Amino acid sequence: MKTFEKIITHDDFDGLVSATVCSYVLGIDEVRFAGPRTIIESRISITERDIVCDLPYPLICGLWFDHHEGNLEDVKSRGINPASIDGRFDKKDSCARVVFDYFSEKTEIPHHFIPKIDEADVIDSFGYSSIDDWRRETPGKIIDGTLKLQKTSTHERWDYIKHLIDLLRTKNITEVAERHEVMDRYAQFQREEKIMLSQIRKDVTFLSEDEDRSLIVIDVTHHKRQFKTQKNLAYLLYPEAEGIVEVKNIFHRDTKTKDLSFSMSLSLNIKAMEHTKDVGEIMRLLNIGSGHKGAGAGVVPCSSKDEMLHKKSEMLRQIFRLYKSQ
Ligand SMILES: [Mn+2]
Which residues surround ligand 1, an ion (CB under 5 A)? Predict the structure, then answer.
């Protein structure tokens, strides 16, 4: 068996659990964090002695674990046979599941890992059965919330994730979620979420033709700066809505461009029923992007402010019309 040096993982909950399994099984302490762009732009050094989890394939690495279909397509389009890559790709709900299945076939993994993998599946695929189910506190969701803190530096954040990996390797997830360093961050996260919710409340609109208020429109194009929103929080304001369309300007580095991005998703309550809606199809019909049934996104380039305002309302009307026709 090869000897491995370090783990490079996505800095989210799925990446955390994936790295924890690898770290436990292979006895590796060295962990680095990255986002998909870091890999695509080769801004991190990765060697054949490294394990890469929940991220695009970096061309050279020791083991690659992933579950994002788009990343598999990229591998194929580069003319690489995915079967020739060590590790595993599988279309599971989480990368943690892929890693767990892979190592379970080779070695015994303690039972306390099972709830961690189950939570990663639900959190990473947003696989909740209802809005209430989504809002219900679980140890995984508490830890996930602490990873979403805005007021923290990248280094502080990575040190914290490393600390969590250390704890989760041997302790059960409930015990970890109850620790003071987790609880303190979670309280901070809840405060930030409240602020976010009051911001969303200001940015929510409905189209005039949408008499039933079925599609929540979150329009953040008037903001000069870019900030992260959790658009699903809008369901707390309008629990009966069937979906959300968020429209924002694309930022290039820190500069606001006139190009628009539309992202749309269906509500958990709709997904739990039999329905004929297909968000990805709407994006494809409008020729602006793609996606799957439950969620999709598209980009509309604009060259002037007038054009942007015109295309914004035009596109929202089209999205609504197609949605209603499905
Ligand atoms: Mn993932």
Answer: 14, 54, 95, 124
CATH node for 206-325: 3.10.310
Counting as low any pLDDT under 70, the low residues of the chain are 1
For the chain, what are the domain ranges? 6-185, 206-325
**CA-CA-CA-CA torsion sign (244, 250, 254, 258):** negative
Q: How far apart are CA 94 and CA 117, in angstroms?
A: 8
What is the identity of the amino acid at 109?
Answer: I
Which of 310, 306, 286 lies closest to 296 in space, CA to CA? 286
Q: Cα(67) to centroid of ligand 1, in Å? A: 7
Cα 286 to Cα 318: distance, rounded to the nearest angstrom: 8
| Chain segment 153-205, per-residue pLDDT in tens | 999 999 999 999 999 999 999 999 999 999 999 999 999 999 999 999 999 99
Amino acid identity for residue 262 in this structure: F
Strands, sheet with 243-252, edge to edge from the N-terminal-most edge strand: 204-205, 215-219, 243-252, 255-266, 295-300, 289-291
Strands ordered across the beta sheet of 50-53: 31-34, 6-10, 50-53, 63-66, 87-89
